[in-house]
Design brief:
338 residues, alpha/beta, Metallo-beta-lactamase, Chain A, Rossmann fold, seven-stranded mixed β-sheet, six-stranded mixed β-sheet, 8 helices, 22% helix, globular, EC 3.1.-.-, Metallo-B-lactamas
């Protein structure tokens, strides 16, 4: 069958007519396949949700009583039939529980990557390429300028800064789901065994990662009670917090706070300068340009469909390689949830 008859974009998201389900819909629908737990992909309000057990657990923590959907957990590689359409999930390497959705019907196979990356991440399963007729790829960092450095070096850079500036609290902005836990794990791998302080907004998800088998080491709450002389104990320490908290009154409670930010966007110096970031940590949970193009070449699909991000650049690259490609122009997704 033609790929567009199996899966195509609609205002609510990618829709599969023969299966009557959506992938990462941006509006409430009857049945949704969710690739991962970030809020721009995993919204509440659907009739039924199919996802990995980890993604369902993340959604339950984030939405609480709002998450009333019928839930169908499936493990990586487990094959199910949805109204006659074959569906299975494979690791995307983005965050814990993240998956690519593989949809197959009448001899046509489409793989939707969701958000993904190729480099090793101690907090989640490694990306697995799947041969297919159509690859639907994200393109958050779909420009050649975005080539992320080795992650271990970025973790060592942060540790070295705490040693160079032992009088300053290092406030590191990191998204609460995935980025914060990955940053912590990479710091542990580089030998940082001191307690890491976390903003209260991080606690539930860090606790969940621990429950799901991802050890984070000693964590302590980043709280300072006014008038109790606790400020100095944060000198030279690492404090992980939501990016927005760095510019808040909360941040000013710490001793000479040094603002840092863990993001792929820190490759662009102007972005770091605009946010007042002194220590840019180039660490992304999305594929960089080389990972995007290498994935297309490895999967070798008959068609490449590109969504949310720098769509036109990746489409143009594919066309120059002699590949059939198009941009889907889906709306409702953020560049890096930051």
């Amino acid at each position: 069958m033609k790929p567009e008859a199996l899966l195509h974009p609609t205002p609510a998201g990618l829709y599969c007519p023969p299966g009557d389900f959506y992938i990462d819909p941006v509006a409430p629908v009857g049945r949704a396949i969710i690739t991962h737990g970030h809020a721009d992909h995993a919204r509440a309000g659907h009739g039924a949700v199919l996802a990995t057990p980890e993604t369902l657990a993340i959604m339950a923590v984030r939405y609480g009583e709002m998450f009333t959907e019928k839930r169908q957990p499936i493990a990586y590689g487990e094959v199910v039939e949805v109204n006659g359409v074959t569906v299975w999930l494979v690791p995307a390497g983005h965050v814990l529980g993240s998956a690519q959705a593989v949809v197959e019907h009448k001899g046509t196979r489409i793989v939707t990557t969701g958000d993904y990356k190729r480099r090793r991440d101690p907090t989640c399963a490694q990306f697995e390429p799947v041969p297919c007729d159509v690859l639907i790829s994200e393109a958050t960092f779909g420009l050649p300028v975005f080539v992320h450095p080795p992650t271990d070096g970025e973790a060592r850079k942060l540790i070295a800064s705490t040693e160079q500036f032992p009088e300053r609290a290092h406030l590191v902005g990191a998204y609460a789901l995935g980025k914060a836990q990955r940053l912590i794990c990479h710091l542990r791998e580089e030998g940082y065994d001191k307690p890491i302080f976390i903003h209260g907004a991080m606690k539930k998800l860090c606790d969940l990662y621990e429950e799901l088998g991802v050890p984070l080491g000693p964590l302590e709450p980043a709280t300072i009670e006014k008038g109790k002389g606790e400020k100095d104990r944060f000198a030279g320490e690492i404090v992980v917090c939501p990016p927005a908290a760095i510019q808040s009154t909360w941040a000013r409670r710490f001793p000479d706070p040094l603002p840092a930010f863990a993001s792929g966007w820190m490759r662009v110096r102007q972005r770091a300068k605009q946010r007042g970031v002194e220590l840019p940590i180039i660490m992304s949970d999305h594929a960089d340009w080389n990972e995007l193009t290498d994935t297309v070449e490895e999967v070798d699909p008959s068609e490449l469909w590109v969504t949310h991000g720098r769509e036109d650049a990746l489409v143009r690259w594919a066309e120059l390689q002699g590949r059939k490609a198009k941009a889907l122009h889906l709306v409702g997704y953020e560049d890096e949830n930051e």
